[in-house]
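Progress report, Aim 2. The chain analyzed during this reporting quarter is listed below.
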Amino acid sequence: MNEEPEESKTEPEAPKTGCGKEHPCGGSGGCSGKKDNDLGADDGVGRTEFIRAAFAGVTLCWGGVTVLPILSYLTPPLDENAKKAKVKSIQVCKLAELPAGTGKNFRFGSTPALVIHTDDRQLHAFSAVCTHLGCTVQYRADIHRIYCACHGGQYAPDTGKNIAGPPPKPLTVLNVQVVDGNIIVSS
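Predicted C-alpha coordinates for the chain:
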Protein backbone atom coordinates (compact mmCIF):
# COMPACT_ATOMS: atom_id res chain seq x y z
CA MET A 1 0.00 0.00 0.00
CA ASN A 2 1.11 3.09 -0.90
CA GLU A 3 0.46 5.46 1.72
CA GLU A 4 0.51 8.92 0.81
CA PRO A 5 2.08 11.21 3.21
CA GLU A 6 -0.50 12.84 5.13
CA GLU A 7 -0.84 16.26 4.00
CA SER A 8 -2.16 18.67 6.40
CA LYS A 9 -5.82 18.44 6.36
CA THR A 10 -6.26 21.90 7.72
CA GLU A 11 -7.45 24.64 5.56
CA PRO A 12 -5.10 27.37 4.59
CA GLU A 13 -4.86 30.18 7.15
CA ALA A 14 -6.49 33.46 6.43
CA PRO A 15 -4.26 36.46 6.80
CA LYS A 16 -4.49 38.09 10.23
CA THR A 17 -6.06 41.46 10.06
CA GLY A 18 -6.79 42.07 13.77
CA CYS A 19 -4.67 42.08 16.85
CA GLY A 20 -5.12 38.41 17.60
CA LYS A 21 -5.84 39.02 21.30
CA GLU A 22 -8.95 38.06 23.11
CA HIS A 23 -10.98 41.19 23.56
CA PRO A 24 -13.86 43.05 21.91
CA CYS A 25 -12.13 43.70 18.58
CA GLY A 26 -12.61 40.02 17.74
CA GLY A 27 -9.54 40.08 15.59
CA SER A 28 -11.32 41.74 12.71
CA GLY A 29 -8.91 44.62 12.25
CA GLY A 30 -8.56 48.20 13.30
CA CYS A 31 -7.54 47.31 16.81
CA SER A 32 -4.66 49.02 18.53
CA GLY A 33 -3.88 45.91 20.50
CA LYS A 34 -4.62 47.51 23.87
CA LYS A 35 -7.35 46.50 26.22
CA ASP A 36 -9.61 49.13 27.77
CA ASN A 37 -7.70 48.99 31.02
CA ASP A 38 -4.30 49.15 29.32
CA LEU A 39 -4.36 52.93 29.04
CA GLY A 40 -0.96 54.51 28.77
CA ALA A 41 0.14 57.99 29.77
CA ASP A 42 -0.46 59.27 26.26
CA ASP A 43 -4.09 58.17 26.14
CA GLY A 44 -5.43 61.28 27.96
CA VAL A 45 -7.47 61.69 31.11
CA GLY A 46 -9.73 58.89 32.27
CA ARG A 47 -13.30 59.35 33.39
CA THR A 48 -12.49 59.10 37.10
CA GLU A 49 -9.71 61.67 36.92
CA PHE A 50 -11.95 64.03 34.96
CA ILE A 51 -14.78 63.77 37.49
CA ARG A 52 -12.36 64.35 40.39
CA ALA A 53 -10.85 67.40 38.67
CA ALA A 54 -14.31 68.79 37.81
CA PHE A 55 -15.51 68.30 41.40
CA ALA A 56 -12.38 70.01 42.77
CA GLY A 57 -12.86 72.94 40.37
CA VAL A 58 -16.51 73.40 41.32
CA THR A 59 -15.63 73.18 45.02
CA LEU A 60 -12.90 75.83 44.66
CA CYS A 61 -15.24 78.16 42.77
CA TRP A 62 -17.98 77.71 45.36
CA GLY A 63 -15.49 78.35 48.18
CA GLY A 64 -14.22 81.48 46.48
CA VAL A 65 -17.71 82.81 45.93
CA THR A 66 -18.44 82.22 49.62
CA VAL A 67 -15.20 83.48 51.18
CA LEU A 68 -14.50 86.51 48.97
CA PRO A 69 -17.47 88.63 50.15
CA ILE A 70 -16.65 87.84 53.77
CA LEU A 71 -13.03 88.91 53.34
CA SER A 72 -13.98 92.08 51.48
CA TYR A 73 -16.40 92.95 54.30
CA LEU A 74 -13.77 92.43 56.99
CA THR A 75 -11.01 94.42 55.29
CA PRO A 76 -11.53 98.18 55.06
CA PRO A 77 -11.06 99.83 51.68
CA LEU A 78 -7.81 101.66 51.06
CA ASP A 79 -8.89 105.21 50.36
CA GLU A 80 -6.08 107.72 50.14
CA ASN A 81 -8.52 110.61 49.68
CA ALA A 82 -10.12 109.86 53.06
CA LYS A 83 -6.73 110.21 54.76
CA LYS A 84 -6.12 113.55 53.05
CA ALA A 85 -9.59 114.87 53.90
CA LYS A 86 -9.30 113.86 57.56
CA VAL A 87 -11.20 116.10 59.96
CA LYS A 88 -8.93 118.24 62.13
CA SER A 89 -11.56 120.18 64.09
CA ILE A 90 -15.33 120.18 64.58
CA GLN A 91 -17.93 122.25 66.39
CA VAL A 92 -19.92 119.83 68.54
CA CYS A 93 -22.56 122.02 70.15
CA LYS A 94 -23.04 125.12 72.30
CA LEU A 95 -21.75 124.90 75.86
CA ALA A 96 -25.25 125.71 77.15
CA GLU A 97 -26.57 122.56 75.39
CA LEU A 98 -24.26 120.27 77.41
CA PRO A 99 -24.98 120.68 81.14
CA ALA A 100 -22.43 119.61 83.77
CA GLY A 101 -22.55 115.87 84.52
CA THR A 102 -23.51 114.86 80.97
CA GLY A 103 -21.80 113.63 77.84
CA LYS A 104 -22.52 113.71 74.13
CA ASN A 105 -21.50 111.29 71.38
CA PHE A 106 -20.78 112.79 67.95
CA ARG A 107 -19.02 112.00 64.69
CA PHE A 108 -15.44 113.19 64.39
CA GLY A 109 -14.89 112.62 60.69
CA SER A 110 -15.50 108.92 60.12
CA THR A 111 -15.07 107.82 63.74
CA PRO A 112 -17.28 108.23 66.80
CA ALA A 113 -16.15 110.61 69.54
CA LEU A 114 -17.37 111.67 72.95
CA VAL A 115 -17.30 114.98 74.82
CA ILE A 116 -17.99 115.04 78.56
CA HIS A 117 -18.87 118.00 80.77
CA THR A 118 -17.92 116.68 84.22
CA ASP A 119 -19.51 117.74 87.50
CA ASP A 120 -16.50 119.97 88.22
CA ARG A 121 -17.35 121.92 85.03
CA GLN A 122 -14.37 120.63 83.02
CA LEU A 123 -14.67 119.51 79.39
CA HIS A 124 -12.97 116.32 78.19
CA ALA A 125 -13.11 114.73 74.72
CA PHE A 126 -12.09 111.24 73.62
CA SER A 127 -12.35 108.89 70.71
CA ALA A 128 -15.45 106.80 71.45
CA VAL A 129 -13.89 103.61 70.06
CA CYS A 130 -13.34 101.02 72.80
CA THR A 131 -9.75 99.78 72.87
CA HIS A 132 -10.92 96.21 73.48
CA LEU A 133 -12.87 95.30 70.32
CA GLY A 134 -13.79 98.64 68.76
CA CYS A 135 -17.34 99.04 70.08
CA THR A 136 -18.69 102.55 70.61
CA VAL A 137 -18.55 103.80 74.20
CA GLN A 138 -20.82 106.36 75.86
CA TYR A 139 -20.84 108.40 79.05
CA ARG A 140 -23.12 107.02 81.77
CA ALA A 141 -23.99 109.76 84.26
CA ASP A 142 -25.51 107.26 86.72
CA ILE A 143 -22.11 105.62 87.36
CA HIS A 144 -19.94 108.62 86.36
CA ARG A 145 -17.96 106.48 83.92
CA ILE A 146 -17.39 106.08 80.21
CA TYR A 147 -18.95 102.68 79.57
CA CYS A 148 -18.68 100.07 76.81
CA ALA A 149 -21.85 98.01 76.65
CA CYS A 150 -20.24 95.21 74.60
CA HIS A 151 -18.10 93.67 77.34
CA GLY A 152 -18.50 95.96 80.35
CA GLY A 153 -15.35 98.03 79.89
CA GLN A 154 -15.12 101.26 81.88
CA TYR A 155 -12.96 104.36 81.52
CA ALA A 156 -12.37 107.39 83.74
CA PRO A 157 -14.34 110.39 82.43
CA ASP A 158 -11.57 112.90 83.09
CA THR A 159 -8.55 110.98 81.71
CA GLY A 160 -9.99 108.21 79.48
CA LYS A 161 -7.88 105.70 81.42
CA ASN A 162 -9.19 102.12 81.42
CA ILE A 163 -10.32 101.30 84.97
CA ALA A 164 -12.51 98.17 84.68
CA GLY A 165 -13.26 95.33 82.29
CA PRO A 166 -11.23 93.97 79.38
CA PRO A 167 -10.00 97.16 77.59
CA PRO A 168 -6.19 96.97 77.41
CA LYS A 169 -5.47 100.69 76.78
CA PRO A 170 -6.98 104.10 77.57
CA LEU A 171 -9.14 105.99 75.08
CA THR A 172 -7.47 108.38 72.65
CA VAL A 173 -7.65 111.90 74.05
CA LEU A 174 -8.89 114.72 71.81
CA ASN A 175 -8.39 118.46 72.39
CA VAL A 176 -11.44 120.42 73.50
CA GLN A 177 -11.97 124.14 73.97
CA VAL A 178 -14.78 126.65 74.15
CA VAL A 179 -14.75 129.38 71.48
CA ASP A 180 -17.53 132.00 71.53
CA GLY A 181 -19.76 129.69 73.59
CA ASN A 182 -19.26 126.73 71.22
CA ILE A 183 -17.53 123.47 72.13
CA ILE A 184 -14.77 122.82 69.56
CA VAL A 185 -13.04 119.42 69.47
CA SER A 186 -9.80 118.91 67.51
CA SER A 187 -7.25 116.20 67.07
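The mean pLDDT is 80. The longest strand covers residues 102-108. These observations will guide the mutagenesis work planned for the next reporting period.
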